[in-house]
Amino acid sequence: MIEIYYIEDDENIAQVVKEYLEGKNCSVSILPTIADAKDALQKHVPGIVLVDWNMPDGQGNMLCKWIRSKWRELPIVFLTVRDDTRDIVLGFQNGADDYIVKPFELEVLYSRIQALLRRAGNVSEKYLSCGSISLDQSRMMVFCGGKEINLSQAEYQLLLLLMINKGKTVTRERLLEQIWDNNGNYVNNNTLTVTMKRIREKLNQPSCLKTIRSFGYRMEDSV
Q1: Are residues 138 and 214 in the same domain?
Q2: pLDDT profile of the chain (223 residues), mean per 10
Q3: From CA 135, how far away is CA 128, in angstroms rounded?
Q4: Which long-range CB contacts under 8 A does 94-102 form with residues at least 24 apart?
Q5: How far apart are CA 211 and CA 171, in angstroms?
Q6: How far apart are CA 49 and CA 199, in angstroms?
């Protein structure tokens, strides 16, 4: 199933597009403001983003630029009434992968979405997020509140394993086995505690990283 975020403040247009695409085995989340879009993206990265230009709390081209600065491989498509050549060029300069002028044929939109995803692959699996923390697996980079955080190899692997299993408790035994024992580095139980302490310090004590006393750790989005 294709997961889509559609940033659009016109409820009628949004619903028409949503109903059509969901009939094509897509899951569409409508986000009526740029603030809503940023909040949703920081919690979870979809397969593709559709963006209108004129939004009640800003311009879609600036949102596009913001998205591209954080998720360089995430496909972005403009759906807008702005058909001026300068706007189209600006949209591409700010990171858009495609630009479709309203009104448009829904069948054409779906075909373009499919074409972009064939080239990009499953982008949502490359980007993991929880709270203010995001992880780019393709570049092995970690960000907290938009700022890049430098982690050691063990710290990165530990955080990656927890984020891949977001919402699930990962036991201390599994973490020790997969991160250290698999590399032939036999360590005592205190090594995990110390490494986790360093991760928390570097990530400003994130509330989404939970300790399950005497058992393990869990990443979960704050309610």
Answers
A1: yes
A2: 95 97 96 95 89 95 92 93 95 96 96 92 80 87 88 94 94 89 65 93 93 92 67
A3: 5
A4: 94/61, 94/62, 94/64, 94/65, 94/68, 95/64, 95/65, 95/67, 95/68, 96/51, 96/64, 102/13
A5: 10
A6: 31
Last residue of a domain, one of 87, 121, 155: 121
**pTM (predicted TM-score):** 0.74
CA atoms in the 13 A half-sphere facing the CB of 201: 8
The label of the residue with tokens 């991760």 reads 199
pLDDT of residue 102: 95
Q: Which domain range does residue 137 map to?
A: 127-219
- Residue 140 token pair: 């092995």
The answer to whether residues 114 and 134 belong to one domain is no
Query: Are 46 and 113 within one domain?
Result: yes
* Helix/strand/coil (H/E/C) assignment for every residue in the chain: CEEEEEECCCHHHHHHHHHHHHCCCEEEEEECCHHHHHHHHHHCCCCEEEECCEECCEEHHHHHHHHHHHCCCCCEEEEECCCCHHHHHHHHHCCCCEEEECCCCHHHHHHHHHHHHHHHCCHHHCEEEECCEEEECCCCEEEECCEEECCCHHHHHHHHHHHHCCCCEEEHHHHHHHHHHHHCCCCCHHHHHHHHHHHHHHCCCCCCEEEECCCEEEECCCC
